[in-house]
Write a structure and sequence with these properties.
Blueprint (H helix, E strand, L loop, with lengths): L16 H8 L18 H17 L4 H6 L7 H7 L17 H14 L1 H21 L2 H12 L5 E4 L15 E5 L6 E12 L6 E8 L2 E8 L5 E5 L11 E11 L12 H35 L1 E2 L2 E2 L4 H29 L5 H26 L10 H13 L4 H13 L6
Parallel strand pairs: 1-4
Antiparallel strand pairs: 2-3, 3-7, 4-5, 6-7, 8-9
Helix pairs in contact: 2-5, 5-6, 5-8, 6-7, 6-8, 8-9, 8-10, 8-11, 9-10, 10-11, 10-12
EC number: 1.3.8.6
Organism: Quadrisphaera setariae
Keywords: FAD, Flavoprotein, Oxidoreductase, Transit peptide
């Protein structure tokens, strides 16, 4: 299988003989793994990267610019992702693949090298919706939903954020009340959510609501009367993806819609941490794709009689990008090893999500400068990646929130209010 890490080559027709000779005989592994980091992976981990990279090359790259331009997410890709074992791949419940955290991270990186919207869809499905059911659902709920979700036949979404409650989910207005007496009484759900991924194409929604018992989670089939999902239009970011406004107008749910294992905000937060971990890896895919594109372009593009790659300023840009990717990759791998060992702490996830995301944005923006004016078109990926990462930087905790998580760990003083 081909890999998106295949070395770019310079065209002999557009480069000097010296540069062409150097490009024809590159160092063993110059880009981006300057340090030979692939040697830190097992054979199984490398195979995950190769398999997902080949899928992205064959089924995403030829179409993603058109998807982005037309604000289209291809729902039909979800069963293909299921066939590859990428939906809930780190879960073991009900026949889910049960792959390691590192393998999941490597898959996220390769998916986001295609587009952040694709990695986001896998995250919403697996790390959020499926994770909520696996962690907090009953045996019956797991059996009902997880097999179909793992196969991509059933699409899920995860509703926590509200129009006025983003970084402060404890202030949510969505409410669920019991209608009747006893544990078998129905629940009635009212309220609204915003920025909910996959919601307009989902079959089931995991909705978090305030109740007299604290925050609880509910499984809401999206064809339930009173449930409405409306795609958010005119986005400048994540256009090859789906984010929605949700409205709940007296949505009546049976008693067994309640996720029995989740009480309080620790329920949704445990799922958010799964998604944040995946982001620490995924954003490096967008950064690497932008870097490799800038590298290829700089070797081929002639200015003042020589390729851009032959100028010191361009080489500084490329070197900074490559080093940033290396450092981010080492951080993500360390977090993955900790997660597989069962010792990954939330503040450590915040370090990865915060720093790798802002590093990735800087790399994508810098890559666009190497591409010049051509870089603002969808013929090139760097600006598309940079625009997408503005959303990734905001969701699953803003820079400010993750900074304060780290600050609290350092000082012992919570400073959120």
């Amino acid at each position: 299988m081909s890999s998106t890490l295949d070395r770019p080559t310079a065209s002999a027709a557009t480069t000097t003989p010296e540069v062409a000779a150097q490009a024809a005989k590159p160092p063993a592994e110059p880009r981006p793994h300057l340090l030979g980091l692939e040697g830190l992976l097992s054979d199984a981990e490398r195979e995950v990267s190769r398999t997902v990279a080949a899928f992205v090359d064959a089924e995403v790259r030829p179409h993603v610019a058109e998807w982005f331009e037309n604000a289209h997410f291809p729902r039909e890709i979800m069963p293909r992702l299921g066939e590859l074992g990428l939906l809930g791949m780190h879960l073991s419940e009900q026949g889910c693949p049960g792959r390691s955290a590192v393998e999941y991270g490597l898959a996220a990186l390769e998916l986001e090298a295609g587009d952040s919207g694709l990695r986001t869809a896998v995250s919403v499905q697996g790390s959020l919706a499926m994770s909520a059911i696996a962690k907090h659902g009953s045996a019956e709920q797991k059996a009902q939903w997880l097999p179909g979700m793992a196969a991509g036949r059933i699409i899920g979404c995860f509703g926590l954020t509200e129009p006025t409650a983003g970084s402060d989910p404890g202030s949510m207005k969505t409410h669920a009340r019991r209608d009747g007496a006893g544990e078998r009484a129905d629940w009635v759900l009212t309220g609204a959510k915003r920025w909910i991924g996959l919601a307009s194409i989902a079959d089931v929604a995991v909705i978090w609501a305030a109740t007299d018992e604290g925050v609880r989670g509910f499984l809401v089939p999206t064809d339930t009367p009173g449930f409405t999902a409306t795609p958010i239009p005119a986005k400048l970011s994540m256009r090859a993806s789906v984010q929605c406004d949700l409205a709940f107008d007296e949505v009546r749910l049976p008693a067994d819609a309640l996720l029995p294992g989740a009480r309080g905000l620790s329920g949704p937060f445990s799922c958010l941490n799964e998604a944040r971990y995946g982001i620490s890896w995924g954003v490096l895919g967008a950064a690497r794709d932008s870097y490799l594109e800038a590298l290829r372009y700089s070797l081929e593009r002639q200015q003042f009689g020589r390729p851009l790659a032959g100028y010191q300023l361009t080489q500084k840009k490329l070197a900074d990008m490559a080093v940033g990717i290396e450092k981010g990759w080492l951080l993500a791998l360390h977090l993955g090893r900790l997660k597989d060992a069962g010792s990954l702490a939330p503040h450590q996830i915040s370090v990865g999500k915060l720093d790798n995301t802002r590093t990735a944005i800087e790399i994508c923006r810098e890559a666009r400068t190497v591409l010049g004016g051509n870089g603002i078109t969808l013929d090139h990926a760097a600006l598309r990646h940079a625009n997408n990462l503005e959303s990734v930087r905001t969701y699953e905790g803003t820079d400010e929130v993750h900074t304060l998580v780290i600050g609290q760990r350092i000082t012992g003083i919570p400073a959120f209010r």
